[in-house]
Design goal:
The protein has helices at about 5-25, 30-55, 60-95, 100-130, 145-155, 165-170, 175-180, 185-210, 210-235, 240-250, 255-260, 260-285, 290-305, 315-325, 330-340, 345-360, 370-385, 395-405, 410-415, 420-445, 450-455. It is mainly alpha-helical. It has a single domain, classed as Proton glutamate symport protein. Helix 2 (about 30-55) packs parallel to helix 10 (about 240-250), helix 4 (about 100-130) runs antiparallel to helix 12 (about 260-285) and helix 16 (about 345-360) packs antiparallel against helix 17 (about 370-385). The two termini are about 40 Å apart.
């Protein structure tokens, strides 16, 4: 009972902050601004709580348990939308194809860009490890890390006996209803494959059964509008969800552990920023002004950064490509949807490559060997298939990569305390990678609308 009054006080303060955010919405403050304000207040509020009560105090534990209703509830809503969004977006992309001949070109260009940039990202991750002398580094193991390692070991047991060819076969959906329910780690790419097959079937039906094809098209268009309405409802919760998630992260994080891993955090962001610069250079090659891209992509990138969900950013991603960057409809849908489960530059490229380069010397491997660097890049690129665009995707990618290279997985658990900090930057990079694939492909197919791209008023923001 001694902790009841302080706990209630913390919850009341949290509710008051939520009321302020709601008031800002009523005054029509921009969505992206409210999200960043929520992020900043959440970080400060959590640090203040830890400073007043101390890490692990029952007041923090109890109050965060209630605050997490908002944060975890928001994440659950985002996860709820993933499978419907993927299905509708990919099937919708097939319905928007102006010519069946473009299907192969779009798919090849989008996948090639996603996988190619992931390979570059993996190389950047390895080089940054060398730059910061992290190869062979060891990190402190506390109670949280020990528990996390035990959990990861169990998860790895599910995939450790699979060869890479067997892993590829595991992507194929054997029970699409189970995959729509997200029952497997690879359910996301399984739904991508199923959706693509449905889209191809639609194209075949369109040639012979025009009446049925028209009915299916109307059905998909109606479902698309319905799902987008659901997305808008969930997006309105973003500032409150971010506030709760950031409060929890800063209030419950072990600051000593974060300081211990500070070098790893800095190295991770150096790699992320370097890769983002490479994105801008590729855009420049495609005759897209990097400054224009940054201005127009900022709303969706800031949303991805704060929400840590590539899947949650999918609708904004597609709309930004179409209405702000001038990408044609079909390519925008393909690039954004494929980017959720294939070739994520941050979560499936930089992160597992860095962990592999760090841990390899601890088991006697010469990670500076050119041949071994090539092996890491190849394994990372192949393993980037099937990484879900939600929290935990980077962990799964790391388990696959480390398992394929016969490296210990403990390193994944040892960096748990800084995972949320790094994941924000990784997610923004993932989304930028998918938009890059869309712009590059649309330019290659001569479908990019420069009048939209160069129109300063053609911007997209969440409401």
């Amino acid at each position: 009972m001694t902790h009841l009054l302080p706990t209630v006080s913390v919850i009341i303060v949290f509710l008051a902050i939520m009321a302020v955010l709601y008031r800002m919405k009523a005054k029509h403050v921009k969505f992206s601004k409210r999200v960043f304000i929520a992020l900043g207040i959440g970080l400060v509020f959590g640090i203040v709580l830890q400073f007043i009560f101390g890490n692990g105090n029952p007041v923090i534990t109890n109050s965060i348990d209630w605050i997490s209703i908002v944060g975890n509830g928001y994440v659950a809503f985002l996860q709820m939308l993933i499978m419907p969004l993927i299905f509708i977006s990919i099937v919708g992309a097939f319905t928007k194809l102006t010519s069946n001949k473009n299907l192969g070109k779009i798919s090849f260009s989008v996948l090639g860009t996603l996988i190619g940039t992931t390979a570059i990202a993996a190389l950047i991750g390895i080089l940054v490890v060398f730059l910061f002398n992290l190869d062979g580094a060891t990190f402190t193991k506390g109670a949280a890390e020990t528990a996390r390692i035990a959990e990861l070991t169990q998860r790895q047991d599910m995939v450790k006996d699979l060869t890479i060819p067997q892993q590829i076969v595991s992507f194929i959906p054997r029970n699409i209803f189970a995959d729509l329910a997200g029952s497997r780690e690879t359910s996301t790419i399984a739904v991508v494959i199923f959706s693509a097959l449905v889209g191809i079937a639609y194209l075949g039906m369109k040639k012979k059964e025009t009446k049925e094809a028209e009915f299916f098209l109307n059905l998909i268009q109606a479902l698309d509008r319905l799902v987008m309405q659901l997305v808008k409802i969930v997006l309105r919760l973003t500032p409150y969800g971010i506030l709760a998630l950031m409060t929890k992260m800063s209030a419950t994080s072990d600051l000593a552990a974060i300081i211990d891993l500070g070098k790893f955090v800095v190295a991770s962001y150096v790699a992320i920023i370097t890769m983002f610069i490479i994105h801008l250079l590729i855009l420049l090659v495609n005759r897209v002004n990097p400054i224009t891209y940054l201005k127009k992509a900022f709303p969706v990138l800031s949303f991805a950064f704060s929400s840590r969900s590539s899947a949650g950013a999918l609708p904004l991603n597609i709309e930004t490509q179409r209405k702000a960057l001038g990408v044609d409809d079909a390519t925008a849908n393909f690039a954004a949807s494929f980017g959720l489960s294939i070739g994520q530059n941050g979560c499936a490229g930089i992160y597992p490559a860095m962990l592999a380069a760090i841990v390899a010397p601890t088991v006697g491997i010469d990670v500076h060997s050119i041949s071994y660097i090539i092996v890491i890049i190849a394994v990372v690129s192949i393993s980037s298939f099937g990484v879900a665009g939600v929290g935990g995707g980077a962990t799964f990618a790391s388990l696959i990569v480390l398992g394929s290279l016969n490296l210990p997985v403990e390193i994944v658990g040892l960096v748990i305390s800084v995972e949320p900090l790094i994941d924000m930057g990784r997610t923004a990079l993932n989304v930028s990678g998918s938009m890059l694939a869309g712009v590059t492909t649309s330019r290659h197919l001569k479908e990019l609308d420069d009048s939209v791209l160069n129109d300063p008023n053609a911007v997209v923001d969440a409401h």
